[in-house]
Amino acid sequence: MHKKANPRSILPIFFLFLFLKTHTSHGADTISANKSLSGDQTIVSAHGIFELGFFKPDGPNPSKPSLWESFDHPTDTWLPGNKMGYNKKTGEKRLVTSWRSPEDPAPGLFTLELFPSDNSFGLVRNKSDKFWSSGAWDEKLGAFSLTPVMKVNGYYNFSYVSNDNESYLKYTAFCSSCEMSRIVMHFSGQVRVLILTPNIDWRWFASLPTQLCQVYAACGAYGTCDESSLPFCSCLKGFEQKSRSNWDLEFYSDGCFRKTELQCGHNSGHGERERFLKMQNILVPKNEQFVQVENIISCESACLNNCSCTAYSFNSSGCSIWMGDLLDLQQLKAANKMGRTLYIRLAASEFQTLKHKKGLIGVVVGSAAGSVVLLVLILLLMLRRKKKAWTGTMMEGSLLAFSCKDLRNSTKNFSEKLGGGGFGSVFKGILSDSTVIAVKKLESIVQGEKQFRAEVSTIGTIQHVNLVRLRGFCSQGTKKLLVYDYMSNGSLASHLFHGSDLNILDWKTRYQIAIGTARGLAYLHEKCRECIIHCDIKPENVLLDAEFCPKVADFGLAKLIGREFSRVLTTMRGTRGYLAPEWIAGVAITSKANVYSFGMMLFELVSGMRNSKQIEANGKLKYYPSMATSVVVEGGDVVSLLDDRLEGNADEEEVERVCKVAVWCIQDDEAHRPSMGEVVQILEGIVR
């Protein structure tokens, strides 16, 4: 049914979209006149793709809820097969609009639109500010030039059509599980791809732009965005959240407001004028106005004497001032050279509050300092009396500090070597309580005592079923040792390349090792407070416990990078055969370098031989990854790629899935590689 009236104003409201929660269903795809549909009841289409039911906002003021009449009037959801575009005859746009808030389905701030003028689509805030673009459509690539990830390695097919009547974009899914997905214009300003899992739960699969701080004014007026902190958004000093309940729901776009209103440059009741709060390393808003002045004092005066001026900045380029609300502020770290010093205009009373707080803090700190000094003296006396080296002393949580003497005794003077790598050699040891451990003697560690302990402390807090657990450490002078749980089945390499035909790893075990290793790396990349780039992913660094559960070793020994950095330069070098092209070239690397190494390791899981080994194919010598890639791309027999020792005993679908993931991971351009989170979802079968 098509009506000229605004479909958002019609009640009761029906949503022909996939709900975020499980609902009671009639179990049929039709409803007759003698039946009712109420509450949480819904009816579901024959193929289980669409669902119809009532929606009731939880918020106190729903205000013009949305009604999805047909594909011609999408709300916040874009489904497979649905067109998004522009009618050249009528001038009508078919776009996707975010909700006003998490609890209010009225039209919100953000829209996803097609722009026929440059054959691109983009994100727009408040119907005027285009802040993100997909780039122009590339027919050969089958995707937009700046977002090749939209192709999702063949799981979705996007098609762009432009003729005399219309221009539109639509997508279809290639697999049954992919059909249970939707693209949502999220109220945060990101476009999010949601996949329905076997547990009837929607999982956030991908988003554009990838970082919240790339969304224009993501934190609203007078809010700052910081990718290295949680939550990402915070209010400037002297401001508070407009709606605490919305911020609790991770909806920040309504921003912040002043605690104390400005007096437009006039004296306050205390005889003081408004002043400016200094904020460093800020990515400033773009709507700056330039003022011709000679120094920072004149710049401040120019802002203070203008009632509409809310902030100023002065650098080598001169004086900049901002009028009205401050939008799109980002807090950067000191290493980011794009940051500037911004001076925020505040009421004089705000500085009196800050001064009072500082004085109070000074009193508290002074009292606490005296207590700390006394406590330190007592501890020094106790340590002097005991004159005993640390042996298994608690450092943080379950992390222990050992003496080098104890570790020397537990390893029988480091007599049983388990292996070695770029960071040092590993030895087997037994503690006094009969616990078996693995002790790594670190080599070429140049950190000072404080830095070493800080990094070890960080590693010690990271725990995951697919990561080797760090039990403790030893640091005495130049001697640096780490103590790990012992893995009784050794490394993956020992089974793939050095094992006998009698104890060869079967395919089921190999597939579970692939999934477990991917989960461990995804945790390091995406779940830790700081993204950890491993820098040396290979079978030697995947250890197996008594149940052959894989555990990634040596993580955290490379540099830690904060979320505010997308790249890090490192002098460390991994192992030949697993290094990404950008790493070999000596340029900056990201976590995608780990993805490349993981892809190379997947080929070795399938073949049971080193990737560096050349094999004959069609009368020519080729390296296995090159040959395997040709087979996958050309749709050949992937079972032929399998380890001969398995004699074809493997799930063909799983072998094909692993090979396709491996090919996806080892692409030269890191932007075309998946994230480890995406790899996990594919290997788990969530996305096929």
UniProtKB/TrEMBL annotation:
Q: Look up the EC number in the record and give it.
A: 2.7.11.1
Q: Which GO terms describe its biological process?
A: recognition of pollen
One Pfam family matching this protein: Pkinase
| Start and end residues of each Apple domain | 264-347
This protein's source sits in the domain of life called: Eukaryota
The residues that cross the membrane are 359-383
The record's InterPro entries line, in alphabetical order, gives: Bulb-type_lectin_dom, Bulb-type_lectin_dom_sf, Kinase-like_dom_sf, Pan_app, Prot_kinase_dom, Protein_kinase_ATP_BS, S_locus_glycoprot_dom, Ser/Thr_kinase_AS
> Does Cytoplasm count among this protein's keywords?
no
Localization annotation: Cell membrane
Topology of the protein relative to the lipid bilayer? Single-pass type I membrane protein
Instruction: Spell out the reaction equation it catalyses.
Output: L-seryl-[protein] + ATP = O-phospho-L-seryl-[protein] + ADP + H(+); L-threonyl-[protein] + ATP = O-phospho-L-threonyl-[protein] + ADP + H(+)
Entry's Gene3D superfamilies? Phosphorylase Kinase, domain 1 (3.30.200.20), Transferase(Phosphotransferase) domain 1 (1.10.510.10)
Extent of the signal sequence? 1-27
First-listed, main subcellular location of the protein, grouped into a coarse class:
membrane
Q: List keywords of the entry alphabetically.
A: ATP-binding, Cell membrane, Disulfide bond, Glycoprotein, Kinase, Lectin, Membrane, Nucleotide-binding, Phosphoprotein, Receptor, Serine/threonine-protein kinase, Signal, Transferase, Transmembrane, Transmembrane helix
Q: Which PANTHER family match?
A: OS07G0415500 PROTEIN, RECEPTOR-LIKE SERINE_THREONINE-PROTEIN KINASE
Protein name as catalogued: non-specific serine/threonine protein kinase
